[in-house]
TrEMBL record:
SUPFAM superfamilies in the record: HIT/MYND zinc finger-like
Keywords for the protein's UniProt record, in alphabetical order: Metal-binding, Zinc, Zinc-finger
All copies of domain MYND-type, residue ranges: 13-53
UniProt cross-references to InterPro entries, sorted A to Z: Znf_MYND
Alphabetical list of Pfam families matching this protein: zf-MYND (PF01753)
Origin superkingdom: Eukaryota
Protein name, UniProt field: MYND-type domain-containing protein
């Protein structure tokens, strides 16, 4: 696959936004630049990034459902028919390769249902950043339906940013003593800002509040965001500030 051309903007760390010194090699080989300022930040989100790295990076495609997820999906679904259709499609050998967008929709649908129905502690082990991403995808679909963003044009880098955000939120939900040392709540805010920049070209002016509220909801278990989305000539600008550290 073609290697990415040099971007006009210097590459930034997908975690903290500082200048990137390292690139994830498997992503680079797949034609995607996933920059990191340091090994520390690469390690910090590897747990989630590995799901969409290398062969899964371009187009960004979350990993197949694992056996336990399929089991939960089969017993927990509120609309068995629709989910069964998705599971059948995903089970087809070449479906992911031939219809990546449809496969991603199916994956997101099944995972979101699985994640929503996880209630007891032993079930929580099934949840992971890709499950969080699946639920967020439902939020983005809703924004698309509402006309807030043009959902058909979601840039595929968006999923990489959201996967990092989901990983940070996953880590941030842990008690402070259990979080990795390199974790900082500011990273969550930073990824939100870069997500807003990415959404600027496909965002409907005047609908900023809904988009900001959606992002705020997505990260509220870790951080309370306050801010607003403005517009410049070259796109959307996010003034996002942390005013209270939340979390459990
Ligand atoms: Zn960094
Ligand atoms: Zn990678």
């Amino acid at each position: 696959m073609a290697r990415p051309r040099t971007a006009t903007k210097p590459h930034v760390c997908i975690v903290c936004g500082k200048q990137a010194k390292e690139r994830c090699p498997p992503c680079w080989d797949a034609g995607v630049v996933t920059g990191f300022c340091s090994r520390d930040h690469q390690k910090l989100v590897w747990f989630g990034h590995r799901d969409v790295c290398g062969a899964n990076a371009n187009p960004c495609m979350p990993p197949p459902l694992h056996a336990q997820e399929i089991k939960w999906a089969e017993v927990s679904t509120p609309s068995p028919k629709q989910l069964k259709w998705s599971l059948d499609m995903l089970a087809r050998p070449d479906f992911r390769k031939h219809s990546p967008d449809a496969a991603r929709d199916c994956l997101f649908r099944v995972r979101a249902v699985v994640d929503e129905t996880l209630i007891s502690p032993e079930q929580v082990s099934v949840s992971h950043p890709s499950c969080i991403l699946a639920r967020w995808n439902a939020i983005f679909s809703q924004l698309g339906e509402d006309g807030d963003i043009q959902e058909d044009d979601l840039p595929h880098e968006l999923y990489h940013h959201l996967q990092v955000l989901a990983t940070l939120v996953y880590l941030g939900r842990k008690p402070v003593s259990h979080r990795p040392k390199a974790f900082k709540t500011e990273f969550v805010v930073d990824v939100v800002k870069r997500t807003l920049e990415l959404l600027a070209p496909i965002h409907t002016p005047g609908e900023s509040t809904k988009l900001f509220k959606a992002l705020r909801t997505m990260v509220k278990s870790v951080v309370n965001l306050q801010g607003e989305i403005g517009r410049r000539e070259d796109g959307m600008t996010g003034r996002v500030e942390v005013y209270q550290i939340g979390g459990r």
